């Protein structure tokens, strides 16, 4: 009888631990799933993606005065507003070409200059105004995007080379920002923010990217 009681007690403990572990795994999976399901905003050139992103990013501060003048129902509605954190893929593509703008592992500047040569660089050193404007360092000449564009549009193979140097890096930075925004957001930021990614050519970049976005908004 004593042995049977010990066995039943051990079975009950094992069942409880299994249930706790299952619950933790389920909660963790739900959290990870929500983190890795950002909203994708896409569309053609100059169709209004940036405008939509700006509207989603608005945090309704302009409504504070109006909220004070109406009843408690409006206050409840205000709390339900969900500002979006916007990740702009075009901006990432611009920043990775600015020397010193990002950490070395996230910069494509050195590789692009090595591959395409110094003829794609501006002739002059950056001015203090330029440094303040682009956030890069003050010692390196900037890549002239127009000159680089002329090179890759004349030669499809050079365009593929540039894509090989930049596209994986852009995707890595985008994914890193999606995850870190949700997992390591400042504890004082109590808003239930969702992440939206402004990404051109979402449907053309491959299956993996289409799977990433749980909701796709075409502007």
What is the residue-averaged pLDDT?
A: 79
The residue ranges in which pLDDT falls below 50 over 5 or more consecutive positions are: 60-79
* Annotation field: number of helices: 10
* Classification by helices and strands: alpha/beta
Alpha carbon gap, first and last residue:
72 Å
Number of strands: 4
Q: What would you report as the Rg, rounded to the nearest angstrom?
A: 25 Å
Biggest beta sheet attributes: 4 strands, parallel
Secondary-structure element series: HEHHHEHHHHHEHE
Shape: elongated
Fraction of residues in helices?
A: 55-70%
**Sequence of strands across the biggest β-sheet:** 2-3-1-4
Our estimate of the beta-strand percent is 5-15%
Structure description:
The protein has 219 residues and is α/β, with parallel strands linked by helices. It has 10 helices and 4 strands. Helix 8 packs across helix 9. It is elongated. It starts with a helix and ends with a strand.
Annotate the secondary structure layout.
Elements: H1 2-35, E1 39-42, H2 49-57, H3 64-68, H4 72-80, E2 84-88, H5 89-95, H6 109-116, H7 128-134, H8 145-154, H9 156-183, E3 194-198, H10 207-212, E4 215-218
Parallel strand pairs: 1-3, 1-4, 2-3
Helix pairs in contact: 8-9
Task: Offer a quick outline of the entry.
The chain is an alpha/beta fold and 219 residues long. It is built from ten helices and four strands, in the order αβαααβαααααβαβ.
From the structure above, extract its key features.
single chain; 219 residues; alpha/beta; four-stranded parallel β-sheet; 10 helices; 4 strands; 56% helix
């Amino acid at each position: 009888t004593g042995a049977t009681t010990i066995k039943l007690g051990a079975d009950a403990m094992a069942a409880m631990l299994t249930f706790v572990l299952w619950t933790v795994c389920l909660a963790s999976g739900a959290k990870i799933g929500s983190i890795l399901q950002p909203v994708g905003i896409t569309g053609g050139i100059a169709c209004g993606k940036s405008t939509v992103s700006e509207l989603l990013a608005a945090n309704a501060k302009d409504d504070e005065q109006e909220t004070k003048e109406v009843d408690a129902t409006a206050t409840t509605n205000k709390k339900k507003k969900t500002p979006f954190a916007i990740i702009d893929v075009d901006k990432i593509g611009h920043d990775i070409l600015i020397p010193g703008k990002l950490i070395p592992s996230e910069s494509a500047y050195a590789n692009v200059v090595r591959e395409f040569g110094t003829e794609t660089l501006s002739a002059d050193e950056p001015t203090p105004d330029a440094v303040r404007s682009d956030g890069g360092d003050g010692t390196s000449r900037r890549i002239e995007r127009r000159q680089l564009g002329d090179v890759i549009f004349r030669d499809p193979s050079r365009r593929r080379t540039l894509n090989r140097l930049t596209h994986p890096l852009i995707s890595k930075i985008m994914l890193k920002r999606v995850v870190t925004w949700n997992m390591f957001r400042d504890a004082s930021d109590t808003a239930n923010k969702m992440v939206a990614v402004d990404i051109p050519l979402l449907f053309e970049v491959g299956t993996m990217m289409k799977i990433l976005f749980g909701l796709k908004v075409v502007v």
